[in-house]
Design a protein that fits this description.
heterodimer, A: 185 residues, alpha+beta, PH-domain like, 2 domains, 4-stranded antiparallel beta sheet, 3-stranded antiparallel beta sheet, 7 strands, 21% strand, B: 517 residues, 3 domains, 7-stranded antiparallel beta sheet, 6-stranded antiparallel beta sheet, 17 helices, 20 strands, 46% helix
Chain lengths: 185, 517
């Protein structure tokens, strides 16, 4: 999609390149599967609870006899299909680029965003892996600067090993620069 | 400890690092006032039982009231004396240590590398005794702020010098490279930058937007008085107005306008008085890498900010300031977004200055940058289309559809909103402007008044470029620059400009050897 016009080299480009932009590394494909499962789980849960409530209150029996019942079923199927088709384009739009001095993350299907973060501005890095992420051996990296309370950059869907590798690399970069450049974080 | 003793043995007081010291006994006044203000701020409801006692006490009312007051006074005084006795401080070779608290003991260690600032305040009750409140602000949170109340001025100055020297050393140890702003040739000489006469303070009072803040508070206060609006008072007021000016629409309208003007004048008066109280004898100097500010009528405040900690300079010209051709400057320091707004103390404002002053101050702050003299680039006209259509048009249409069904042609009324909003969107678009000189950027925004923000690229934390589908096809982008403490957004700037800004910022961050905080 775009080329960031600074003059340092791209490193660590061993993962799958996204079709749109060979400069950005894409997130792990299993992230899509995980996102689909989570979406399906949430929607299925909501639907299931609803079914139980309707069954308990006796509405379900009437519903089966209702002439337009199939439209509702179709609508639900449609919503499921749409929701489950979203994670892939979202995944395709995401990507990161590690360079000698800075780090970039792009995201957004309709609105394209690119966040750029110089290593020496990083105050700390968090590696997070929730229960679902652990099943898929994935992790989320969060980068914090002095800019505010929330993470300035969040890279989800990284294989655990890659995430640790990036974290170590970035911290080394940030740390080395910090001592040279009077950062006390 | 009286001040002459301190003068007699320079650094003696602060060098005895193993000894805990007390502040002056006069600090009891400070503690009393602190308790009183804490009660007023947090626990005015706690006074309800007192009211209940009074209501039921019958004839003994005054006796009961007197007893309660006397009891409270004794408790306050004892509390203040104990607070004074338990408040001790010590200045170590690398930290300021504080012990305080009567019931809940508190120990605080504030290491020099985290000290952001050392400020003085001189409340009116300390002035005859030549005592000050020394405030040590840390880079962390406000809860780690330390107030040493009742320190003799010479000792306070010594502590400040001592602490700041240590801070500098702590910095120097971390920083082995050569160019730190604090080590600039101005060392030693004090540069007199600005003194404000009362006339300027009046201008500031008129033109800062505090009038609207006061108006908001007043409106909030009156709307609380629901009973008042329902009461006979308002009816009486209307009757009175009717009697004096007549009952015609014109007369009532004239009266309303007149009243509005009176209220506005009163608010302006309040704002002017506030400005004079806070900023009386405003004096700004530069010395040894720091900006010092002294101001205040009842309470002299001395604040200083190291120039390396200034993340950006805000040059604001609100609508009335435009008529007076004045600008109000704010040094934006490191702070945190999202949490509570930075305290007033951390807002370092230079009120009511003119163009040559802010130009020279900008040059002084950011390595004689000429970025303010550069012509500003405008943003795209598509900004207008986007907001007219998406921010106002679409919501208005969505509201209109059900309204038309319910109210007939009157339901079309919301469609006027985008039309009314359009001039404001156009004004807003026109205010936006940006320029850069490779190492510094300036962004202008506003509606009727405007604000210029100047920042050095090497202090940038992150940069974000966003593009909507429309922006992608027309080659524009939104640029968000995040500095430590706040962020700036330039909407609808040319994509190539956005990329140039990003590249410049990344390059400056990478190559600059200057400290950013």
């Amino acid at each position: 999609m775009e080329h960031i016009a600074t003059d340092n080299d791209i490193i660590l480009s061993d993962d799958l390149p996204t079709p749109e932009d060979p400069n950005f590394e894409s997130l792990d494909p299993s992230y899509v599967t995980m996102a689909k499962l989570v979406t399906a789980g949430i929607m299925g849960g909501v639907l299931g609870i609803n079914l139980v409530i309707q069954y308990a209150s006796g509405n379900l029996v009437q519903f089966v006899g209702w002439p337009y019942a199939w439209t509702v079923v179709l609508a639900i199927a449609f919503v499921f299909t749409v929701a489950l088709s979203l994670p892939r384009p979202i995944w395709r739009a995401q990507g990161y680029q590690l360079r000698d001095q800075d780090l970039h993350f792009k995201h957004g299907v309709i609105w394209h965003n690119v966040v750029s973060l110089p290593y020496i501005r990083i105050q700390h890095v968090e590696l997070e892996s929730g229960p679902m992420e652990r099943i898929f051996k994935l992790a989320t990296l969060k980068f914090f600067t002095a800019g505010g309370g929330t993470a300035d950059m969040k890279i989800p869907g990284l294989p655990f090993a890659t995430a640790s590798k990036i974290r170590a690399h970035v911290m080394e970069k940030a740390g080395v620069e910090a001592r040279e450049d009077k950062l006390d974080g | 400890m009286d001040s002459s003793a301190v003068k007699g043995k320079p650094l003696g007081a602060v060098n005895q690092s193993d000894k805990w010291q007390r502040v002056s006994p006069a600090s009891i006044i400070y503690f009393v006032l602190k308790f009183v203000s804490a009660i007023i701020q947090n626990g005015i409801q706690a006074l309800a039982p007192v009211a209940a006692v009074l209501a039921t006490a019958g004839e003994n009312r005054w006796f009961v009231l007197g007893s309660i007051a006397a009891g409270a006074a004794v408790v306050l005084l004892v509390g203040a004396v104990l607070s004074y006795l338990n408040f001790k401080f010590r200045i170590d070779k690398d930290a300021v240590l504080i012990r305080s608290g009567v019931l809940k003991r508190k120990r605080l260690t504030l290491s020099f590398d985290r000290i952001q600032n050392v400020a003085f305040r001189e409340p009116i009750y300390f002035r005859p005794l030549e005592l000050v409140i020394l405030t040590i602000e840390s880079a962390g949170s406000t809860s780690e702020e330390v107030n040493l109340a009742g320190v003799p001025r010479p000792l306070a100055e010594e502590i400040r010098r001592f602490v700041l020297e240590r801070v500098k050393k702590a910095d120097a140890n971390q920083d082995k490279s050569e160019t730190v702003a604090e080590a600039e040739p101005q060392q030693g000489s004090v540069v007199d930058l600005l003194r404000l006469p009362v006339g300027e303070l009046v201008r500031y009072g008129l033109s800062n937007n505090n009038v609207w803040v006061f108006a908001g508070i007043a409106a909030g206060a009156t709307s609380q008085l629901d009973d008042l609006w329902d009461s006979a008072f308002i009816e009486m007021l209307f009757d009175m107005v009717g009697e004096t000016v007549g009952t015609g629409i014109a007369a009532i309208a004239t009266f309303a306008i007149f009243m509005a003007l009176v209220i506005l004048t009163l608010l302006m008066g309040a704002s002017i008085i506030g400005s004079i109280i806070v900023n009386y004898r405003y004096h700004l100097t530069y010395h040894d890498g720091r900006y010092h500010r002294t101001r205040g009528l009842f309470e002299r405040q001395e604040t200083s900010v190291p120039e390396v900690k200034v993340q950006s300079l805000k040059i604001a010209q609100p609508i009335i300031a435009k008529l007076l051709s004045r600008f109000h400057l704010t040094f934006n320091q490191v702070g945190f977004e999202g949490k509570q707004a930075p305290s007033k103390k951390s807002k370092f404002i230079v009120p009511s200055v003119q163009v040559p002053f802010y130009e020279s101050l900008t040059e002084r702050l950011f390595e004689s940058t000429q970025v303010l003299k550069k012509p500003l680039s405008a943003i795209s006209n598509k900004f207008i289309t986007r907001h007219a259509v998406y921010s106002f048009g679409v919501p208005a249409s969505l509201v209109t559809i059900p309204w038309v069904f319910n109210f007939g042609w009157k339901g079309l009324f919301p469609l006027l909103v985008p039309i009314v909003a359009l001039p404001f969107v156009i004004l807003r678009k026109r205010r936006y402007g940006y320029a850069m000189d490779g190492s510094n950027g300036v962004v202008r925004r506003g509606l009727i008044g405007h604000t210029l923000t100047v920042f050095p690229f090497h202090k940038v934390q992150t940069i974000k470029i966003s593009q909507s589908p429309g922006q992608r096809s027309s080659g524009f982008a939104d640029l968000k620059v995040k500095l430590a403490g706040h962020s700036l957004t330039i909407p609808y700037m040319k994509l190539e400009d956005a990329r140039t800004w990003r590249a410049a910022a990344m390059k400056e961050v990478r190559t600059s050897t200057k400290a950013w905080m």
